[in-house]
Structures are given as C-alpha cells and as structure tokens.
Write a structure and sequence with these properties.
mainly alpha; about 110 residues
Amino acid sequence: MAAYGVHRHPRPRGIFVDGVLSTRSSLPVIPGYTYGVKVAVSIPDALFRRAERLARRRKMSRSQLYAVALERLVDFDDDGQITRRLDAVHGTLDSDLDAGLLAAQAEAVRERW
C-alpha cells in the first residue's frame, strides 16, 4: 500500500552514534522531539486519502486525527465492556414483578385519563 504524501526510505542498517555505526535495537531518542508514542501502521490507500481530507477539513494534524479516532474507538469498546458486565450481573437477578404490583399496573392502564 503506497501512502499518499509519505516518503518511503530503505530500511536503515544502523545509525551513526558519535561517529560509530550502531545496529543496536534500542537507539537513543532525542528528548522533547515528539509528544507521545510513534506508531507505524498500514492502512488501505483509500482510507488514508479519506483521513487526509478529513484532517484538512478539521484543521488538525494527521497524528491528532488518528489519536482522536483511536480514542473514540477505545471508549466505544470500553462502553461495550461495561454493558456486558451489567448484563452479566442483571441476568442473574429475578426480574419478575410482584403479583400485586402487576395487577395495579394493569388496572392503571385500563383507566381513562
């Protein structure tokens, strides 16, 4: 999947640290260079283009757009977890109405207002 507007570079074989080629997996990070964690993901080209248009319309960076979208998905999933837990608890409770209350409700429905 070619990413629109993203430059692809060949995989680096290492990095020069203090004039020496280092191939360590834990390379130094420049403090304050970024906020948060950098993540590389692959998405379909069409979705990437739609996301780019949306980011421009909302006047936000690509990172902000992806962070907002991911946060909403995670929150939505968390809401599902809460619902499933409540269903599990309430599914074990007796939900039958008291016979007297049921009769009173039926009578109230028959009355004219």
